[in-house]
Amino acid sequence: MQNTSRRAMTNDLQQRLTALTKELNSMTSKAEKLLSRGRFQKFLMNQEDAGVIAGMNLELDHIVQAFMLKGAIVTEVAVEETRRTVEQGFSRTEATIQETKTYLQEAHSELSGKVLSIAASSERTESGMQDMKEETRGGFGRVLSSVSETEDAVHTTRKELSGKLDVISDNLQKSGAAASDNQTKLLSAAQLQLLRDLPRAQARYDSQSRGDARGCFEGTRKNTLNEIYNWINNQDPNTPPIFWLCGLAGIGKSTIAHTIAAEEEEKHRLGASFFFSRDEADRRNPLLVYPSIAYQLAVFSPDLKRLVAEALEQDPDVGLAVMRKQFQKLISEPLAAWEGNKRTLVIVMDALDECYPESGAEEILVRWAAELRRISVPLKILITSRPELHIRAKFQSPSLRLISQPYILHDIEKSIVQADIELFLRHRLNEIAEEHGTPTPWPTDFELRILVKRADILFIFAATAIKFIAGGKRRDPQARLTLLLKREAPKATSKFQEVDALYTQVLQHAVGTDDEDDEDEDDMDTTRQAFQTILEAIVLLRDPLSSGSLEALLSLNKGAVRNAIIHLHSVLVVPEVLEGQIRVFHPSFHDFLTNPKRCIDPQFYINPEESHTRLAKICLKRMLAALKEDPCGIGNPWLYNSEVPDLRKRVEDAIPPHLRYCCLHFASHMSLASPNNATLSDLIVSFCDTKLLVWIETLSLLGDADSAITSLRIMGGWYKKTPSAARRTRDLLHDAHRVVLQFAAGIRQSSGHIYTSALPFSPPCVLRQHYASSIPLNYVLRGQPSMWDTCVCAIEDSDPLWSVNHSADGERIAAGSSEGHVRVFSSSTGAELALLEGHTRGVRSVAFSNDGSRVASAAEDGTAKIWDITTGMLLATLQEHTDVVTFITFTLDDSMVVTTSDDGTLRSWHSITGAPLSCRSGHDCEISAGGLSPDGSIIATVTDAAIGIWDLHEDDPLRLLLGQSKDYSSIAFLPDNVRLVSGSSSRVICLWDYRAGTSLKVLEVQADVTSLAVAPNGTRMALPYQREAIQVWDTEKWCRLGVLEGHCNGVQWLSFSPDGSTLASASDDSSIRLWDCTGSLPSVHDSSEAKSSYGHACIAASEDGMCVVSVSGRGRSLRIWDLNSDSPPRNLSIEEYSDFVLCSANGQIFVVEGLAKDLGVYNEEGYDIDSQRLRLWSTSDLKCLATWSVDRPGGASCTGGAAFSRDGSLLASSQLAPGFQANQVSVWSTESYRQKLTLSSHHKDDIEGLAFSTDNARLFYASTAGYGVWDVGSGAQIIALNAPDRASALSCNYFADNKLIFCLRRLKLTLSGFTACIIDSDTLSEVQKFPFSPTGRVEGDISKYRLVFLEDKGDRLWECDKSGTRRLCWLPQTLRSASRVKHMVLSGDLLIFGLEGGDIGVLNFEALRGAVHE
C-alpha cells in the first residue's frame, strides 16, 4: 500500500515538476533577455525595470503557490503514511533534512547569480531583485531543490527514488508550512516601494562603487583575523559589543574589514556593512549611514523587513530626518521589536575617519554607545579608522571605553606584518608569472626581500606595487619589477617615504618618462598638461565622476580620460563600464599629491589653491553654457516638486552628472581658490548677470536648495576681496543670499518658487530689478519691504522661546522653549540640527560647551540637563535645586557646569557625570540670572536687591554690588574683565567696576531690561525695547544706535555671535531672529516711536477692497487707506481701547467698537460687565456720526458678532441679554442713528456671527449652540436650529440668491478642527460641509463664498469653496507673523494683510488663483 501511494505521488509529482520546469525556463528566458541588453539601455530603463522585476516577482510567487496547492492532498497522504517511519527513524530524518538544506543552498545560489547579475544594472533594479530573492527564498528554493532531486531520481534505481521521495515528502510539508507563514508576512507593494525609495549609499563591502576591492590574501593577517573572530564568537554578555580596529593609512584596515564582512555573510551573520570613502558624496555622508544599514537589515531578515517597512509607513520621510531620529525609527526600534533572534548579528563599518563632517563620525559612535545596551539582539559592531583625534577622543570617553575593544594595527610586531606582506607578494607575483609565462622561480628571493623591506608595515605599498607590475604596457612584468627596484627613492623625510617613491615611479612611467621612444616635445608637453588636468580633477573633485562626465566637465575629446590614465590603474579605481566613477584607489595617494614635502617632483605636485581655482573656473563656464530656466520642462512654476510626475527621471535627463557636480560644488572649489584671480572674478560677474536664479532653481530640482545659502556666502565673501569688484555684482550676491535665507522653505518645496514668490515678495533690490522679466505674475501689489531688513533670518518654533545662545564657533544656535524642549539650529541656514526633549516645563537658559560637543539647559521644572549635541543623547540630569533653575553655563575648560536657581543657591557640577561639586548660598532671595566673566574666573548672580560677585572656586561671595536701582534682572560682562552691565525692571542699566565694587554709570533705557547681551569685542550692547523690539547701544559712547523691529511678542533672550556680527533674539512669538549688526541700524526716529506700531488689532475693507480701515495693535488709533490713490494712509486717534473695526460694503462708513473703562459694572455673581461703545464714522471726512453703548461680558468685543447690511443702511451687533449672555442683537439705522430693533435668540450661547441677506429682509446668526434667522421687519425669529456640533462661528455670509449661507466654524473640542459649512437659509440644515484640520492655524475671511486660510506652518495660503480645498502660494514670514483671523480680509479681487509695522500688504487674489489653477 505504501509503495502504491508512493508511486502515485511520484507520478503526480513528476507531472507537476515537469510543468514547473517549463514555467521556470520561461522565467529564465525573460531574465536573460533583460540581462543581455546593453549597459546604456539598462541605465536608461532602470525605472521601468523596477516594474518588470516586481511583475516577475509576483509571477514567481503565483507559480510557487500553484505548485504547492496542486500537491497538497498528495503530500498529506504521503506524510501520514511515512509518519511512523519518521518517528522510528528520527536520526535518519535529521540527516535528510541536512541533505535537503545543502540542495537548497546550491540551487538557490544558481538562481541568485542570475537575478543579481540583472540587478547590477542600477540601484533600483538591485533593490527589486533583492526583494524578489528574499521573498521567494522560503518556497522557491525548495522547489528548485525538488526539481534537481527528481531529475536525478528518474535515472537511478527505484530504491534511490524511494529514499529521495521520503526527503521530498518531508520537505514539501515543511515548505508548505513555511510558505503559509511567510504569506502572513508579505509586504504590500506600497511598503516595498517605501523600502526601495529609502535614501541610501552604495557602501556595502561588495558594492560596485568599491571596484575590485578584495579581502585579505589567504594565510595573511591570521592573528588579527583570529582576534576579531574570537570577539565575534564570544557569547559572554560582558564582551564589548564594539571592536575598534585602528591603524595608519595604507596598513590594510579596509582589507581586513572586507574579509570579515565576506566571511560573516557566508555564515549568514552579516546584518549590514558600510564602507566610507571621502571621495564619494554618498559614502562620506553620515545622513545616509543609518538608512543604508536599515535597508540592509531589511534584506537580511524578512521580519526586520516588515518592521522597517512599518516604520517607513508611519513616517515616509524618516530617511531624511536628523540622525538621532533615523537611528531610533529605522534601527533601534525594529531591532528591539525583532523577537526570537538569538544569533549574533554583525555590522561592519570601515574607514570611519572618512565620514564628513567629523561630527557625523562622532554621532555614529555616540549613538551606538547609547543604544547598544538597550537592544536585546546580540550585536557586534566592527569599526575601522585611522587614529584621528576626534575618533580617539570618542573611544576614550567613558561611554565608549567600557563597551569597546581597541586593536591598534600598527602596534603589531613588524616581523609579523612583514611576513604577511611577503606571503601576499610571493603569491601574487607567482600568479603574474603564470599569467605572462615568465620562467620561474620569479622573482628572486633578493628582489622579493627588497619589496618587502620597502613596504615596511604598509599593505598599500604591496597592493600598489602588484598593480604596477601587472599593468605593463608591453606586458613585461620583469621590466616593471626592475624599474621598481632600480629606481632610487627620492629624498624625502616622510614616514611614508617608500610609498611616496612608489607613487612617483608610477606617475613617471604613466607620462612616458621611462619610455625610450622619441616623441615630439610639443606633443609631450600637451600630453603631460592633459594628464595633469585630468589627474588633478580626479584627485580634487568633491564627488567622483565617470570618464564621460569628466570629459564633459573638462571639455576633452571622447576617450581622452581613459587614454590618459591607462597606466594609472595601480593607483586609481577605473571601472570597466564607462558609466563607472573613477576615483583614487587609496586616500594616501591624494595626501601624497597635495603635499609638497612628499610629492617633490614638480610635474606631479598638485597645488591645491591653483587647482581649485582652475576647477572653480571650469564649473562656472559649464554652468554659464548649460543652465537654463525650467530645465525639466515642468511648464507650471507654481507646482511643488513633489507634484511633478517622474521628476527624478526628468532631472536625470535634463541635468547631466557633470552639470550637477558644477551646481553643487563650484563654491567649494572657490572657497579654496586663489584670491584676486581676475578671470574667476569675471566669470562670477557673468554668472550673476545671467544664471543666478536658474542655478537656485536647479538646486531645488536636485533636492539641495540649502546648499545655495552656503555657496552664496562663499561666493560673496570671495568676490568682496577682489579689488575690482563691481558694486552691482556684490549687490546681486548679497540680495540672492538674503532671498535664499528668507525664502528657503519655499525654494526647497518648489523650483519655481524663486520666480513665483521669492522675487515678488522681495524689496525693490538690485536682484529683483535685474531679473524682473523672470517674474511670471506681479500679484503682490503692496507690502514688500522698502529695503532688506536688518533681520537676515527668522527661525520658527512651535512654542514661545525663552532662551537662546551661540556655540563657541558661531555655527550653531540653541534655543529653549516654554514647553521644555531645546532645539539646535544652523546659524547660517536656519536648518534644525537637533531636538532635545526631557524637561517638563519651560527652559530658562541654554549654553554650549566650549568644545561644541554638549548643550546644557536649565528649566522651571527645577532641573538642569546636559546633552550630547550630535546624538541628542541626555548625558546627565542635575537635580539638587529645589526651585526654578534660572541660569546655566560651562566653565572655560568645560570641566564644570554652573547653575543658579530661585532657591537662592549657586551650584557647580561635573560636566560629564553631572555629579554635584559645590553649593553656595550667599543670597537670601531668588537668584534670577547669572553670568560668567570672559576670563572664566568670576561668576555673577542677580537678585532683586543686589548683584553677587563670586570667585569660581570660593564658597562665599567676594562682594555685593548695591546701587540706587533695585529690581535687578539681568547682567552681561564686558570683555575687559573689569566691568559689567546690569539691567533692571525699573528701566535703567548700570555700569559697574565689579572688581572694585563701584558704580560707574546709570542710564535710563525706556524698557524693562529682562535680558542683556554685550558683543564679545565690547563695542555694542543689546537689550529689549518696549517688549517686541530690541535697542542696540554703543558701549564706548554709551548712546543708543538704533532699534531692531520684527518680533510681534516679547523678546526674552539675546545672544551675540562670537565675532559680534550677528545678534540672536528669542521671543514669545515662537521665533528666533538673527540680526545683522555689521552695518548701520535703523535709527530711533524710524522705529516704532514714529510708527503705528505693533501691527493691527483688526483690519476691515470695503467690498471692492479699495477702502481699508485698521485698528492699531495698541488699540488707540485707526489708519484708513484709499487704494485708488498713492496717498499715504490717514490716521485717526480714538478715545477708547479698541480691537474691532467693520467697514460697510461701499466703504463710505465704518464702525469701531471700544471699551469704556469708566462705565464698568458687575453682575450679581461678581463678574464684570464692560460697557462697549460703537462709534460710527464717515470715511470721507473721518467724522464721528453716532455713538452707541453695548454691554458685553468683561473683556469681550463683538468680533464676528456684528454686520452691516449690504446697502450699509443697517448695523447689527450682539449684546448682553438678561442672564448676562450675549444672545441679543441690536439693529441700528446708520441713517437716523437710532436703534430700530432688539432681537432675542432662542439659543443661550453667545452670538458670534451675523449676516444680513442681500435684500435686508433677514438676519442670520450663528452661536456655539446653533443657528437662527430673524425677520428684520418684524423682529420675529423665523427659525432656530441646534448645530450638530459645538463650534465657534468665525465668519458667515449670505450667497447672492439668499438661499444659501456660508459659515466658517471652529470646533470647540479641538484647536485645529475647522468646518466650512453651506447652510440652507430656510431650514438651516447643513447641505454641504468641508471639514479640515490643518496642522497650523486657520486665518481668513469669507467673500464671494470662499474661505482663505493659512495652513501647515502658516507659510502656505489656501482657499476653500464648495468645490474643495486648493493651495495658492507660499507667504513670507512678514505677512504671516502678523496675521490672525481679524488681520486678513478678502475683498473684491484683493487679499489684504495687516503688517507689523502698521502698513498693509495687498495681493491680487483673483490673478493669483487664476495663474495657479490655469
Task: Determine the number of helices (DSSP H or I, runs of at least 4 residues).
Answer: 40
Return residue spans where pLDDT drops below 50 for at least 5 consecutive residues. 1-9, 37-51, 72-185, 514-518, 1085-1093, 1158-1169, 1194-1199, 1334-1343
Give a count of the beta strands, DSSP E runs of length 2 or more: 64
> How much is the radius of gyration in Å?
38 Å
Distance between the termini: 79 Å
Spatial strand order of the main sheet? 2-3-4-1-5
Shape: globular
Mean pLDDT: 79
Largest sheet: 5 strands, parallel
Helix content: 25-40%
Based on secondary structure, the structural category is alpha+beta
Estimate what percentage of residues fall within beta strands: 25-35%
In brief:
By secondary structure, the chain is of the alpha+beta class.
Structure notes:
The structure is a single chain. With 1414 residues, this protein is an alpha+beta fold. 36% of the residues lie in helices and 26% in strands. The chain has a 5-stranded parallel sheet. β15 (843-848) and β16 (854-859) form a beta hairpin. α6 (90-119) crosses α8 (137-154). The chain is globular and about 120 Å long. The termini are far apart. 47% of the residues are buried. The model is unreliable at 1-9, 37-51, 72-185, 514-518, 1085-1093, 1158-1169, 1194-1199 and 1334-1343 (pLDDT under 50).
Summary keywords:
1414 residues, alpha+beta, 5-stranded parallel sheet, 4-stranded antiparallel sheet, 40 helices, 36% helix, 26% strand, globular, disordered N terminus
